[in-house]
Design brief:
This is Tat pathway signal sequence domain protein. By secondary structure, this protein is of the alpha+beta class. It has two helices and 14 strands. The termini are far apart.
């Protein structure tokens, strides 16, 4: 119901009017703009944040260990696992997980374990008295393959590997007769 005009003159409004000066409007507008700029900068900083590095350390790209030990790389642990049937497999586990994921079966008995520029290299002794070198490049869907030389032929030999050493860009294998063979890993 609406009051007539004559009755409206006698009534006062309960509505309070907010009156702001141009100066107050300018100050509030500047504050809102400043908050928007700071929020935008903060959001852009979060979106462009570089990947976290653990403890400022650098990732090891080349290392060697005995066949019984593991190699850690990018939060994963790679190791050579002896299976129940006596064969060996290359396996990995992630940090905090106790489950091992088999990556590849190996035809022989590992004599050493090497990480070289993102590839795991496994010199192994084969049951027929020969040796070869298996390599597995890190990545989804990767398969273990035999290492080949610059001539395109698999790197292999007769005898039993007793010692494996990574020296600069080469793998040095020592057999049971103390004969050494130097295998270049970079062309």
């Amino acid at each position: 119901m609406r009051l007539k005009r004559s009755a409206q003159k006698n009534m006062t409004s309960r509505e309070t009017r907010v009156v702001m000066s141009k100066r107050q409007i300018a100050i509030i507008s500047a504050a809102v703009l400043l908050i928007a700029v700071i929020a935008g900068f903060f959001i852009m900083h979060l979106l462009n944040k570089p990947a976290l590095q653990t403890g400022g350390s650098t990732r090891v790209e080349r290392t060697q260990t005995k066949a019984e030990n593991s190699i850690s790389y990018d939060g994963r642990s790679y190791f050579l696992k002896k299976n129940s049937d006596g064969t060996y497999s290359l396996a990995q586990s992630t940090k905090g997980s106790s489950e091992a994921l088999e990556l590849a079966k190996l035809p022989g008995t590992p004599a050493g374990f090497v990480l070289y520029d993102g590839a795991l290299i496994i010199p192994e002794n084969l049951p027929d008295g020969t040796w070869d070198i298996m390599a597995w490049t890190m990545g989804d869907g990767s398969v273990a393959t035999q290492l080949v030389g610059s001539d395109g032929k698999p790197v292999a030999g007769r005898g039993t590997i007793k010692k494996v050493e990574l020296k600069e860009k080469s793998l040095v294998l020592t057999d049971a007769d103390n004969q050494t063979k130097k295998i270049p890993l970079s062309q």
